[in-house]
Amino acid sequence: SDDMKKEFCSDMSFIFHAEFQLTFGRYFLSDRWVLMPLGIDGVCRLPSDSLCDVEIAKVRFECDSCSHCWTSMRGQISFFYDCKSCILYFKLFTQLCDRCGDTCT
């Protein structure tokens, strides 16, 4: 339940930063990384030796069109990073609303 999660840790940003450090800390030797969304069309000119990490987690979606909310165990985010340029790109994957059929993030 949500109350049980709050007992574990009431500050989700703390959990996010801890998980982020566990996943990417070994690559971040510099303190000056830039986090940027991948282009909407997916076009991004990354060097051929860029690295990728895919994370799948439970995600809450909300449809902007009909306000329907749901959670999915298959929420996905991909990170693409280049240690030379210190840029970390991310792409959030979408799902279709089962009520109205619109694409939701």
Automatic annotation (TrEMBL):
Biological processes annotated in GO: protein insertion into membrane; protein targeting to membrane
Gene Ontology molecular function terms on file: olfactory receptor binding; zinc ion binding
Boundaries of every 3CxxC-type domain copy: 58-101
Pfam families documented for this protein: Zn_ribbon_3CxxC
InterPro entries on file: R-trans_p, ZAR1/RTP1-5-like_Znf-3CxxC
Compartments where found: Membrane
Coiled-coil stretches: none
Keywords linked to the UniProt accession: Membrane, Metal-binding, Transmembrane, Transmembrane helix, Zinc, Zinc-finger
Membrane protein topology class: Single-pass membrane protein
Chief localisation class: membrane
Domain of life of the source: Eukaryota
PANTHER family membership: 3CXXC-TYPE DOMAIN-CONTAINING PROTEIN, RECEPTOR TRANSPORTING PROTEIN
The name this protein goes by in its record: 3CxxC-type domain-containing protein
Species per Swiss-Prot/TrEMBL record: Rotaria magnacalcarata
